[in-house]
Amino acid sequence: MKLSRRRFLQAAAVCLAAPSIARAQTYPARPVRILVGFPQGGPVDIAARTIAPWLTERLGQPFVVENRPGESGNLATGEALKTAPDGHTLLLCGPVNAINTTLFPRLDFNFTRDTTPVAGISRVPLLVEVNPAVPIRSAAEFLAYAKANPGKLKVAYAGNGTPQHIGIELFKMMAEVDLTLVPYLGSTPAIADMLKGVVDAMFDPMPSSIGLVREGKLIPLAVTGPKRSPALPDVPVMSDFVSGYEADSWFGIVAPKSTPADIVNRLNSEVSAGLSDPAMAQRLAALGATPMPLSPAEFARFIARETDKYERVIRATKIPLK
């Protein structure tokens, strides 16, 4: 039987699509690792452990969170990007990755160039907070104390290049205050020292601090987003005290470059489904997070914008490059 040109082309298209359809249906073939560049209990880790159970349930293989703290997140990023591009190793990323593109010019990888964006997860403001022993109970008092006591306030942050680091440097410049910055490997050890009184304050992504605030172990002064957080509605925004100041954090998933589109699209579809699930939305809201569902292309554009934005901030605040 003679095939028409149209029938022939249709048949050829089906044959060409068959391998990707089969691959998407059989993915994942084994447990999937989600690498996190910071210790357990920090905001990046919390984001990974929020989405991992959902993906495990939906895709039928364990999605296992593995913490690789060190080098301001670059250790985990480098490991993830050098694995096979088959969707079985993913990276839980955030603004630290966009920041490090500028801050660490000697890296042997480029985050934007060497990744395949998969899906956005959430955005969160930073929470400006102090140990209860510090004689400060409001953002206005924080500013007044910092101006009257240059360099006396010790402010912890989760390593060079994190959004906390850049957020504090931007705050120092815009508020014209001198603070002593104390770096840690992640939010978890920084918070531990703040609770002991080793450091006085933090600018920390809300998920890792909100529980301690609700327990009265930390005093919230302000959030750094454009508006108040529904999770802590009585806490003002820092821009009420330092005009135009904003800083936040976000989380998403990327894979190594050249990961097949069918695998990326399947992961994106499942993450997006999770973000629209009422139970997941409720959990994110309790952490002070806002869902950030994005297509792979939208997430790629978002990362590019964030990289450009942070490059401008790093240049303006004259943070030394590493």
Tags for this model:
single chain; 322 residues; alpha/beta; 10 strands; ten-stranded mixed β-sheet; D-Maltodextrin-Binding Protein, domain 2; 2 domains
Describe the structure.
This protein is α/β, with parallel strands linked by helices. The chain folds into two domains: 164 residues, Bordetella uptake gene, domain 1 (D-Maltodextrin-Binding Protein, domain 2), CATH 3.40.190; 124 residues, D-Maltodextrin-Binding Protein, domain 2 (3-Layer(aba) Sandwich). Strands 1, 2, 3, 4, 5, 6, 7, 8, 9 and 10 form a ten-stranded mixed sheet that branches. Strand 5, helix 6 and strand 6 form a beta-alpha-beta unit. Helix 2 crosses helix 9.
What separation lies between the terminal Cα atoms? Answer: 69 Å
* Top-tier CATH class of the largest domain: Alpha Beta
- The number of helical runs is 11
Total of domains: 2
CATH architecture of the largest domain: 3-Layer(aba) Sandwich
Q: If you average the pLDDT, what whole number results?
A: 92
Structural class: alpha/beta
Q: Which parts are unreliable, with pLDDT below 50 for 5 consecutive residues or more?
A: none
Measured on Cα atoms, how large is the radius of gyration?
A: 22 Å
Q: What is the element string, with H for helices and E for strands? A: HEHEHEHEHEHEHEHEEHHEH
**What's the main sheet like?**
10 strands, mixed
Q: Summarize the amount of helix as a percent range.
A: 40-55%
CATH superfamily of the largest domain: Bordetella uptake gene, domain 1
